[in-house]
Amino acid sequence: MLVQEYFKTRKNLLEKALDIYLPPAKQYPSQLHEAMRYSIFSGGKRLRPILFFATYEMLIGRKNINRLDRLLPIACAIEFVHTASLIHDDLPSIDDAPERRGNPSCHVKFGEATAILAGDALITKAIELLTEIKTRHIALNCIRIITRAMSTRGMIGGQTVDILSTKKKININTLRYIHLKKTGALLQASMELACAAFDAEENITITLSNFALNLGLAYQIVDDILDEVGNFDILGKEPGEDSRNNKATYSNLIGLEKAKKTAEKLLRDSYNLIKNMKNNDILIEFVNMIKERLP
Amino acid sequence: MLVQEYFKTRKNLLEKALDIYLPPAKQYPSQLHEAMRYSIFSGGKRLRPILFFATYEMLIGRKNINRLDRLLPIACAIEFVHTASLIHDDLPSIDDAPERRGNPSCHVKFGEATAILAGDALITKAIELLTEIKTRHIALNCIRIITRAMSTRGMIGGQTVDILSTKKKININTLRYIHLKKTGALLQASMELACAAFDAEENITITLSNFALNLGLAYQIVDDILDEVGNFDILGKEPGEDSRNNKATYSNLIGLEKAKKTAEKLLRDSYNLIKNMKNNDILIEFVNMIKERLP
Questions:
Q1: pLDDT recorded at residue A229
Q2: Residue to substitute from B33, B36, B120, interface A, most A β-carbons within 10 A
Q3: Which of B28, B114, B127 lies nearest to residue A147, judging by beta carbons?
Q4: From start to end of chain A, where are the E strands?
């Protein structure tokens, strides 16, 4: 199967499920449900759920889209949590981003109050979905994984340090913490959730979890580099935004060359962690996708 | 046991557990953990966790504080969700409340960004705690109950309609919806959680759930009445606030006398639902506490 075909079919599968699991837009109170749907269907690449599917299909030993049906509550929960974090991060008092993926942010379109509540509602819906998993110990493991990823030890912690660091001099360890928590935690959870759904052995889970953390950090460093030397097409947003927002980046903290070398090493480490696993082609594609963005 | 003694001992038990389950204030990132603790320890009456304890102790047939230890994750989860909703409701774009219980609101003290994230973190922590319950089906039932209470069919839905109704003419059904969802849903969940922890029969759960909804609605109507005719001492806040904020109240929609009669009927209905249950004295006290606030 072509990689593009894999991404396309899994994205379609996910998007149908997102539509089914979200409350209808017309359901009372409709403004809230419209806001949730607006942000969920705003053109996301669905990388986290696809990484989740790919990990699971590697573990079961073959690509079989029919085997993914029972995983849809988990895949949707991942995307709900991701989108909730974007809605809250874009708020005026946090990152103050008027646009997201070329469209008005949720709070610009629906007002701040509704945006805050839509984020809360997506977090809540994510957990509700996970309680629908039939096997109880898997359901509870999934809820543990996703709440840890969101918690003050995960995304919320990373976002807090990010805000408090704006306009301040920070060192590379703090920036690494922000990247690992803000981006890494949910990528890590996506792969751990696949392991939980498969009841994978602990050593496999640990390896894949480390793979995800390296991948997430590499992704952010490449983003930092592109913020300095990229263009709109490759970055998907205006370059130079982080510097303008007084946010530290890897390239301005340790220099462009060293940042590049760090990213390359992380990608090499990621590759090495999974190179001997069978059916690893889609995971390797994730590594390559990031490598190809490197200028 | 004196009722006051019951409330005091259960409140103490709960507050010790809240302190244990919350991340230490000094833990990185400390500003976030300080904000969570600030709002949790800002003088709440802990009515919801106490209602939860009282329901459970009625179901097991005796008051025994030692039997409550295994319920502490649930009791704390209730208070975390309640506090998260207060933090988000107080935000400038929602109710714009600079004070809560006589102290600066979370966002006034720590900034809006941290307040938004502290609310998110408390929701997350609530769910994490519930995964610690040893018996799996009870853990999952509790998570289902609390996420339904928070969802767009519960508190978040009620809060959305409340915001959208401000400065608008609404009818009594809409106001009833707001009160039932904003206040009723979590009171209902508190009693349903006790039933879940006890593995109560369904008819008992339904009865107690209805008791809680009536109680919650009565509480809000009495609050509406006091907003018109009460004083600071009895209300715990300045009267007339709702009218000044252009919020509809029961008394201005159906008149003071009819509002009073509605509250009295709801309290009578509540009482009738539980009057034949054994060991119901603390639940009856909840009914009386609201009755006594009626002017």
A1: 83
A2: B120
A3: B127
A4: 99-100, 103-104
Whether B32 sits inside 8 A of A160 (CB atoms) is: yes
Q: Which residues have C-beta within 8 Å of that of residue B180, sequence separation ≥ 6?
A: B158, B213, B216, B217
Disruptive mutation site among B124, B130, B186 for chain A (greatest number of A CBs within 10 Å): B124
pLDDT at B235: 64
A227: left (phi over 0), alpha (psi -120 to 50) or beta: alpha
For B111-170, write each residue's pLDDT tens digit: 999 999 999 999 999 999 999 999 999 999 999 999 999 999 999 999 999 999 988 899
Q: What ipTM is given for this predicted complex? A: 0.96
Q: Give the integer Cα–Cα distance in Å for B149 and B142.
A: 11
For chain B, the 3-state helix, strand and coil shares in percent, each to the nearest 5, are 75, 0, 25
For A154, nearest residue in chain B (alpha carbons): B121
Please answer yes or no on whether A150 and B113 come within 8 Å at the CB atom. Answer: no
Nearest to B140 among A32, A33, A140 (CB): A140
Tokens 């990823």 belong to residue? A149
Q: Which residue has the higher pLDDT, A227 or B42?
A: B42
pLDDT of residue B1: 75
Q: What percent of chain B has pLDDT over 90?
A: 90
Size of interface A-B (CB pairs under 8 A): 141
Which residue positions in chain A have pLDDT lower than 50? none
Using alpha carbons only, what angle is made at residue B153 by residues A74 and B254, rounded to the nearest 5 degrees?
A: 170
CA distance A61 to chain B (A): 30
Burial of A272 (0-12, 13-18, 19+ CB in 10 A): exposed
Which CATH architecture does the domain made up of A3-288 adopt?
Answer: Orthogonal Bundle (1.10)
| Domain boundaries of chain A, sorted by first residue | 3-288
Select B3-293's CATH number: 3.40.50.150, 1.10.357.10, 1.10.600.10, 1.20.272.10.
Answer: 1.10.600.10
Q: Dihedral angle at the C-alpha atoms of B10, B13, B17, B20, nearest 10 degrees?
A: 160
Cβ pair A94:B114 closer than 8 A: no
Q: Kindly determine whether residue A152 and residue B123, on different chains, have CB atoms separated by under 8 Å.
A: no
pLDDT value, residue B230: 73
DSSP assigned state of B96? -
A133 neighbourhood in chain B, CB within 8 Å: none
Nearest by CB to B156, from A117, A127, A137: name it.
Answer: A117
The predicted-structure confidence for A224-263, as pLDDT tens digits, reads as follows 999 888 776 666 666 777 766 778 899 999 999 999 999 9
10 Å CB burial of residue B259 (0-12, 13-18, 19+) is buried
pLDDT digits (tens, 9 = 90+) for B192-243: 999 999 999 999 999 999 999 999 999 999 999 998 887 766 666 667 777 6
Position A235 scores a pLDDT of 64
Residue A245 — φ and ψ, nearest 5°? -85, 10
Specify the pTM: 0.96
Confidence of residue B247 (pLDDT cuts 50, 70, 90): confident
